[in-house]
């Protein structure tokens, strides 16, 4: 087993089944990367409740500590050999997780029943972290990751090249095929020719890519990639398009919401997450591959 480095894998937990699924995935990621696993739960005390209610406060804090303890036990039970520490931190979950993302190798979160939620408000911790983290953010799906290739959808932009590098590394680590995908609209003139050029330029920009398969898909980018994720082991994407100033691009948001496999939102030191737009609401809540950028 490799000795864990100083940059840990961080997993945010909330006491839900989805959070424990994220812990199991994060534990496997930590061992495969030779990293320490850091389990984090953010504790906040509502400002509307008086601090004089000491009994209620102490009880809530003990319950929060139990969330951390259960997550640490789950990591050890699911992945023998994982090195794991538990941390109860004070403050809004998005703020604390974003702070930790500056020194983390990977940040893992649970989906907390996203498929049953009709929309994600700007205050969503998951939305804020996926869009603004300084390290890659992995969203867990279900109890265990499915088998399949790492799916990479590219457009040739700088964010998609960064994501493609992440996708190539994930495919090598998992010993699975890498598929590089570009989506073109139905009936678009010269769509196939232009799409092939995008694929060729993207793969040429990543000399460490290794063996991969290029594929053109046709349809609406978001829906098409969500459907493709059903047969993939992982999707990796950029958090927003190059022409999209919103917190999260529309395609990235759709994959966040509806993707069928673990989804990685690629970030790197050269491409830090954007700041919260003016007026955005902050949350006090808890807690390889497809590449998308201009589509967002």
Notes on the structure:
With 296 residues, this protein is of the alpha/beta class. It has two domains: 5-139, Rossmann fold; 150-265, Rossmann fold. It contains eight helices and ten strands. The protein has helices at 17-33, 54-78, 93-101, 125-132, 158-174, 191-204, 221-229, 250-258; strands at residues 5-12, 35-43, 84-90, 106-109, 137-139, 150-153, 178-184, 213-218, 234-237, 263-265. The chain has a ten-stranded mixed beta sheet with strand order 3-2-1-4-5-10-9-6-7-8, sandwiched between helices. Helix 1 (17-33) crosses helix 2 (54-78), helix 3 packs parallel to helix 4 (125-132) and helix 7 packs parallel to helix 8 (250-258). It is globular. The model is unreliable at 1-5 and 270-296 (pLDDT under 50).
Layout of secondary structure:
Blueprint: E1 5-12, H1 17-33, E2 35-43, H2 54-78, E3 84-90, H3 93-101, E4 106-109, H4 125-132, E5 137-139, E6 150-153, H5 158-174, E7 178-184, H6 191-204, E8 213-218, H7 221-229, E9 234-237, H8 250-258, E10 263-265
Parallel strand pairs: 1-2, 1-4, 2-3, 4-5, 6-7, 6-9, 7-8, 9-10
Antiparallel strand pairs: 5-10
Helix pairs in contact: 1-2, 3-4, 7-8
């Amino acid at each position: 087993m490799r000795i864990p480095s100083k940059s840990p894998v961080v997993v945010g937990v909330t006491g839900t089944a989805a959070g424990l699924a994220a812990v199991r995935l994060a534990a496997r990621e930590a061992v495969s990367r030779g990293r320490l696993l850091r389990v984090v739960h953010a504790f906040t005390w509502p400002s509307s409740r008086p601090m004089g209610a000491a009994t209620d406060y102490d009880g809530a804090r003990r319950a929060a500590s139990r969330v951390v303890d259960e997550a640490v036990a789950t990591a050890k039970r699911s992945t023998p050999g994982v090195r794991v520490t538990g941390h109860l931190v004070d403050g809004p979950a998005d703020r604390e997780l974003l702070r930790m993302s500056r020194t983390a190798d990977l940040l893992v979160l649970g989906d907390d029943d996203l498929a049953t939620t009709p929309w994600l408000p700007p205050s969503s911790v998951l939305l804020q972290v996926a869009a603004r983290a300084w390290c890659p953010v992995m969203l867990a799906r279900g109890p265990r990751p499915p088998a399949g290739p790492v799916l990479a959808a590219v457009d040739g932009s700088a964010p998609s090249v960064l994501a493609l590098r992440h996708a190539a590394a994930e495919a090598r680590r998992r010993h699975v095929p890498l598929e590089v995908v570009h989506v073109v609209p139905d009936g678009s003139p010269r769509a196939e020719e232009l799409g092939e050029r995008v694929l060729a330029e993207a793969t040429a920009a990543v000399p460490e890519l290794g063996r991969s398969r290029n594929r053109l898909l046709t349809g609406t980018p978001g829906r098409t990639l969500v459907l493709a994720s059903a047969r993939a082991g992982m999707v990796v994407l950029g958090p927003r398009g190059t022409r999209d100033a919103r917190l999260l691009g529309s395609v990235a948001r759709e994959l966040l919401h509806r993707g069928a496999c673990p989804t990685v939102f690629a970030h790197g030191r050269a491409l830090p997450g954007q700041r919260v737009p003016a007026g955005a609401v902050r949350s006090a809540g808890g807690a390889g591959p497809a590449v998308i950028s201009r589509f967002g």
